[in-house]
Each structure stands twice: as structure tokens, then as C-alpha cells.
């Protein structure tokens, strides 16, 4: 943790992780500041890169995306150019929520959403397995989400 953050900065960040649409007045009240100093601190936190962006968290169920899968992707040949092509193509697929290059038996772990199992199967067959470098995939389907979008820890 950066030593430039004091207790109030951390409180601002924690409050905004809970509610990113919180008004400056409510944020100031929450952290025990008046509005002007709170707004200045918030602007500094944004400018210093502690706050990357604001966004809405959408409901998967309301959007009809009932399947969440964690997909372990393996490459047979580890060629940098192929990996870069794979990563570029992954970025363009909206149903892939996250992609991590990992250590261990897989090369990448993806979090994927789909309407149902048929939709997921079609995605696997028509898109994922045809991506550059992919030689095998293994899926783990989420049975129940316990925690999501938890926010970063702020000691």
C-alpha cells in the first residue's frame, strides 16, 4: 500500500468501492470531511491513479446470463506471436469477463458467461477452440456465486 494514503483517503476509497455513485455530500459525511476538502481529495485520488474508472455492475440474471464458467486454456507450443494474437482476440469477445495468464498446468484462465449450457457449448465449439494457439480447454461451471466484485482490500 502506498504510504501517501492516509486514513481518510482509505475511507474515501472504501466508500466508493461500495457505492461509486455516492454524491460528494454523502461521501464527505461518510468520511468526516466538509464537501470541498473531500472533493479535492477525490480529485487527487483520481489523478494519482488510485481510482481507474467508475462503472455499473449489471445483473447477470436480469440479462439472461445464467451460466458462469471458468475455462482453463492450454497451448502446446508457447510462441509469443501466437499468444499475442490469442490475447488480442480475447479482448474482442464480450462474453469473456476476465482473462488471466497464469502459472501451472494451464496457460490462461478465462471467466465466461453464457445464456445456458447450449449457448456455452456453441461458444466453446465455434469461438474458443478456434482461437490461435489453443490446443485444449477444460471448464469448471459455477454452481453458486458466493462473492463477486468484492473490491480491493484497504488496510
What is this entry, summarized?
This protein has 155 residues and is of the alpha+beta class. Helices cover 35% and strands 19% of the residues.
What would you note in describing this structure?
The chain is an alpha+beta fold and 155 residues long. The chain has two domains: 7-47, Arc Repressor Mutant, subunit A; 67-141, Lrp/AsnC effector binding domain/regulation of amino acid metabolism (RAM) domain (Alpha-Beta Plaits). It is 35% helix and 19% strand. The chain contains five helices and four strands. It has a four-stranded antiparallel β-sheet with strand order 2-3-1-4. A hairpin with a 6-residue loop joins strand 2 (96-101) and strand 3 (108-114). Helix 1 packs across helix 2 (24-31) and helix 2 packs across helix 3 (35-47). The longest helix has 13 residues, at 35-47. It is elongated. The termini are close together. The mean pLDDT is 94.
